[in-house]
Specification:
With about 200 residues, the protein is of the alpha+beta class. The chain has one domain. Helix content is about 35%, strand content about 20%. It has 7 helices and 8 strands. The protein has a 5-stranded mixed sheet with strand order 1-5-6-7-3. It has a 3-stranded antiparallel sheet with strand order 2-4-8. α4 links the parallel β5 and β6. The longest helix has 15 residues.
Amino acid sequence: MPLRLTAPLPSLRASLYLRWSRAKTSRATTTIHNLQKKSERMITKVYHGSTVCVSEPRLLPLTRRLDFGAGFYTTSDLDQARRWACIKKRRKMDSQALVSIYDCSAIFKADSLSIKHFKKADADWLDFVMAHRMGKEQPDMSYDVICGPVANDTLYETLTLYERGILTHSETIVRLKTHKLADRIVFATATALSLLKYEGCEEV
């Protein structure tokens, strides 16, 4: 049976904008201390997979749209960082895969930072990711730190079908529930990056 287009792309963009506009008044900035209360465990270390050691993380201009927008992307899962490092090594045909290690415990002592924490890939996560993928970010999407699931290749296929209007919003949410995803923690401002303490680098 041929796939049926349920919504044209312009309508999808309009619906995304409408949902974010309606939710704008109900979203409050979550502090780092609130993240500590919400998290099942306190995150004290994060990792960044690459082909170089990154002792001084910086915010670089975006060359492509990323799910959580511009920022320094890390994970609390060391194995996931190692996988990312190996993927980058293959893509760049480099000679090494490296994981930079950071202490981020100071984050939980800061009062001035704002954070968005997605516990799972749900409707809120979907709207946030799609807004960034489509260049429809809103002012209330700006945070110092963003935590949440990272989309794998299979999930990217689902997001692409939704973006093209082949899947509806509700159909996409159902599919999201079937995925077990790793986490990522994005430091989106210089203030947030300043709280990272570089501890060293390991070769994979």
